[in-house]
Amino acid sequence: MNDMPLRYPRIFQSLDLGFTTLKNRILMGSMHTGLEEEKDGFDKMAEYFGQRAAGGVGLIVTGGVAPNRAGWVAPFSLRLSSNSQVNSHRRITDRVHLEGGKICMQILHTGRYGYHPLCVAPSRLKAPINRFRPWALSGSGIRSTIDDFSNCAVLAREAGYDGVEIMGSEGYLINQFIAAKTNKREDEWGGSFENRIRFPLTIVRSIRDTVGADFIIIFRLSMLDLVKDGSSWEEIVLLAKELEKAGVTIINTGIGWHEARVPTIATVVPRAGFAWVTKRLMGEVTVPLITTNRINMPEVAESVLAEGCADMVSMARPFLADPEWVKKTAEGREEEINTCIGCNQACLDNIFARKRASCLVNPRACHETEMPFVPAQTARKIAVVGGGPAGMACAATAAARGHRVTLFEGAENLGGQFLLARNIPGKEEFAETLRYFQHQLDLHGVTLRYGHRAQVSDLTGYDEIVLATGVVPRKIDIPGIDMDHVIPYNEVIMGRREVGDRVAIIGAGGIGFDVAALLLHHDTQAGGVEDFLADWGVDQEYAHRGGLGLPRFVTPRREVHLLQRKKTKPGQGLGKTTGWIHRLELKKNGVKFWIGVEYLKVEKNGLWINQDGQERLLAVDTIVICAGQESELGLARELDTAALSYHLIGGALLAAEVDAKRAIAEGVALADSF
Question: Domain named NADH:flavin oxidoreductase/NADH oxidase N-terminal: which ranges (predicted)?
Answer without folding.
Answer: 11-335
